[in-house]
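If you are new to this repository, start here. Below is one unmodified record pulled from the training split, so you can see the exact layout before writing a loader.
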Amino acid sequence: MTSCGFGSMLASIGRGPVGRTGPAARGLSEGVVGATGHGRVPTGQSDSPHTMTSAEYTTLMDFLATGFARMDTRFDRLEARQDALEASMSRLEARQEALETRMDGLDARQGSVEARLSRSEVLWESMRHEIRLLAEGMVALSERLDRRFDGIQVQFDRFAVDFGTVQLDHGARLQALEGWRRAQGSRG
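And here is the target side for that same chain:
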């Protein structure tokens, strides 16, 4: 190879930055097909710094083939990684679908719990109302019983007074009867 460099070699086969294409533009009037079948290679040495020998062309093509083989290997590895990523994505999508299904189930359960809670709140309010009615009834009953017991106490107090009066009257009667009996017994 000449000391022109890789860019020069590419330019010499018509792919360089200069934009020259074809053998006529490179000053090649005759040439042979390269080892890999890519383009024509001049048969002899030329004064142009962009001219390659057949050996240089073969070396360049081997170098490029090796580079492309490495790139193909890298592309194969990238495709394998992409396949692995796609498989991972598929698994993640399946897990996401499973989670969405679980979330739908949780939403349904939450709706059920909310309905039960609402029903419980209604029952609680109803029970609270009934307890209030029961408490009011107990207060009314207590007041009624208090009035009745007050009436009974008054009656017991009257009975006690009446009973005391009866006992006093009874004592006086007994004395009167005993006095009458003695008076009868002494007469008799």
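Two things worth knowing about this chain: Residues 54-187 form the longest helix (134 residues). Helices lie at 6-12, 22-25, 54-187.
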